Amino acid sequence: MTEAPTEVPNALTWLGHATTLIEVDGARILTDPLLRDRLFHLRRHGPTPTAHLGAPIDAVVISHLHHDHLDLPSLRALDPSTPIVVPAGAGSLLRRAGFRGVVELARGESWRLARGPRIEAVSAHHSGRRVPFGPTVEAAGYVIEGQRQRIYFAGDTGLFPEMSDLEAIDLALIPVGGWGPWLRGPHLDPRSAAAALGRIRPTAAVPIHWGTFWPVGLPRTSRFHEPGPRFAAHAAAVAPTVEVRVLAPGERVSLASIGEAATAV
């Protein structure tokens, strides 16, 4: 007798910084994979996410070209046939680096995995320049639409008017901090990230881009430890209908059971 296939639950795992593993409709999607413990002068505080990469990754989405979001050594740790979705204009950089499965999306364009969800590029307000000599392309966010859930991955961004155009978002992955004592340029901090929820109106939100990397030799301050909890506190005041889940790196939450406690993997 043939056994029925086991349904893989839709889930979200925060792997640290802007790296998340989104499991939806049988597909596994990585966002902005930064899988190393060191990046230039930054050191990871928390578990290395390699334990979550045992099963194949079906697609990668890259929000912009900053080194902590587009990390070539991390991409090389994946199967070379993995599709990599990037903002329009970023493909040549990746192809020169040897990647072939590159999908470029301009704002409003979408691409569907062979099995699984549709990925749409949406607006972001953030620098798209790759320093020191790389190209400049428009930063992007993405809406990942499965059969039952719509997930918004903001990448890295400040507030922008088009946030209000996002529709029926079940889970928003919102940046709330950075990797050092100061935020430079367009970013969301805990207060402005909570204000973003009022524009996006998601069912639930998970803070990302905080509490992971910090400059070597610099004492970790409240700007390392507290952006996630501060975001939750501000959100409770200005967007009380949005459920905020503050995860630790490596924690996983079922998308079908928002409202229950997150479980560590």
Question: How is the topology of this model organized?
Answer:
Elements: E1 11-16, E2 19-24, E3 27-31, E4 38-39, E5 42-44, E6 59-61, H1 72-76, E7 84-87, H2 91-96, E8 102-105, E9 110-112, E10 118-122, E11 141-145, E12 150-153, E13 171-175, H3 190-200, E14 204-208, E15 213-215, H4 222-225, H5 227-238, E16 243-244, E17 251-254, E18 263-264
Parallel strand pairs: 3-6, 6-7, 7-8, 12-13, 13-14, 14-16
Antiparallel strand pairs: 1-2, 1-17, 2-3, 4-5, 5-15, 9-10, 10-11, 11-12, 17-18
Task: Supply the key terms.
18 strands, single chain, 14% helix, 8-stranded mixed beta sheet, 265 residues, globular, 7-stranded mixed beta sheet, 5 helices, alpha/beta, disordered N terminus
Folded structure, characterized:
- With 265 residues, the chain is α/β, with parallel strands linked by helices.
- The chain has five helices and 18 strands.
- It has helices at residues 72-76, 91-96, 190-200, 222-225, 227-238; strands at 11-16, 19-24, 27-31, 38-39, 42-44, 59-61, 84-87, 102-105, 110-112, 118-122, 141-145, 150-153, 171-175, 204-208, 213-215, 243-244, 251-254, 263-264.
- Strands 8-7-6-3-2-1-17-18 form an eight-stranded mixed sheet. A seven-stranded mixed sheet has the order 9-10-11-12-13-14-16.
- Strand 9 and strand 10 (118-122) form a beta hairpin.
- Helix 3 (190-200) packs across helix 5.
- It is globular.
- The two termini are 32 Å apart.
- Mean pLDDT is 92; it is low at 1-6 and 259-265.
